[in-house]
Amino acid sequence: MKAIIVGGGIGGLTAAAALHQRGWEIEVLERAPEFTEVGAGLAVQPNGLRALDTLGLGDLLRSKGPADPPAGIRRRNGHWLIRNDLDYLKRRFGQWATVHRADLIDLLRTAVPSAALRPGTEVHQVRPDGTVIHSGGASTADLVVGADGVHSITRRSLWPHARGPRYVGYTTWRLLTPPQPVEASTETWGAGERFGHMPMPDGRVYCYIMANAPQGSQGGLDDLRERFARWHDPIPALLHAAREDHVIQRDTYEMPDLSTYVAGKVALLGDAAHAMTPNLGQGACQAIEDAVTLAAAVDGGDVRAGLEAYDRARRPRTQMIVRLSRQVGSAAHWTSSALTAVRDAALPSCPDRSSSGRWLPRTTGRPSTAGSLRPFCSYDGKVASPCFSRASSSPPSG
Fold first, then answer.
1. What is the pLDDT averaged over residues 328-354?
2. Higher confidence at residue 390 or residue 85?
3. What is the pLDDT of residue 375?
4. Given strand 96-100, what is the order of strands in its sheet?
5. What is the pTM for the complete model shown?
C-alpha cells in the first residue's frame, strides 16, 4: 500500500511516520526547498505527547523540554485575573513539553525514510482517485493525505465549493528572545490585545502577541515595543531583547466546518481540515492526533472504510475545538472599556472552573474542570473514540 502526503509540516510528517511504521510505502511532497518549520516555540500538551507515544517519540520530547502548565492570566498592570494550580494540573493531566517547531520537524523527519522526502515539489491538483499532479509530474497512491495547511491545494481541489478560511479579526506575532529571567508561562490581557510568554528549555523565551487589526496589516518590532511599553514586567524587557529578524507575523484564520474530511482516496488533516485560532494552543496537537488516528484507521487495508472511520472520529472533535477556541479568545479582544472593566473585575472572583485551555483549574479546592477539559484533551488512540482515555490540558501557545 502506498500513501502520498501533501505537505511536510508537523501533521504531514507525523502521518508519514505513522504510516511508515505500519508498513506503508510513503511519499512526502513539500513545496519548500527543505523540510523545516518557520516559527518559534511550541507547547506540546499532554494529549499531543500521548499521540506521539504511539510513534515512540513522546518521551523524547518530555525529556528534552519538560515544562510546567500555564501559570494563568494577568492584567496589563500585572495583577492576576486567573491563577492556576500547577501541581494539580500536572497530577491530573500529565507532562507538558516545549520545543522549537523546527526541532519537532527534525525529530519527526528522523522517523521517515529520507528517500520518501521530496522537497521543492509544488502540488497543483489532487484527484479523488489518488492521483496528485505536481511540479515533478504525477504520482498515484492508495491514499492521499492533504496536510498542506490553511490554504490547502488538496482542499481546494476536492472541496471547490466549500467556504475558505475566515479571518478572525486579529493578527499574531511570534518571536524568540535571548535568554531572559521569566518565572512561568503567562498570558496578559488588555483591550483588544494580549501578550504571552513561555520559557524554552535553553533559556530563551517564546513570545506571542495578538492584536485586533484589519486583515493584511503589518507591524514591526518598534510598533510592538511602543504598544506594550507600559505593560507589566517582563514584557517591555522581552521586546527590547528581541531582534527584528526573529519576528514572524501572520494573520489569524479559522476554517468553517466542512461536511466531511474525506473524498475518494483522500483525507484532510490539520489546518487543511480545521484551521483554528491559537487560543487553546491545540493546532499542532490536533494535527498530530489526526495523523496517528488516520494511520490506525486505514491499517486494516480497507482504505475507504478506514477513511470513513477517521472522519467519524476526528471531524466532530476538531470542529468542536475550533468553536471553543474562537469563544475562548473573544473576551481578550474586547475593546470597550466598560466590558473589559467588567471582565477584569469578574474573572478573579469566579468560582473554580475553566472555560478554556488558557485559564485552567484555579488554586483553591478541587477544580470542577475535568469534564469540560476532557472533550478536547483526552485520547486513547482508538479510531471510534472522540476522546482520549486520560485527560490533559492546553498551555498558552499557538
1. 85
2. 85
3. 35
4. 41-44, 96-100, 66-67
5. 0.89
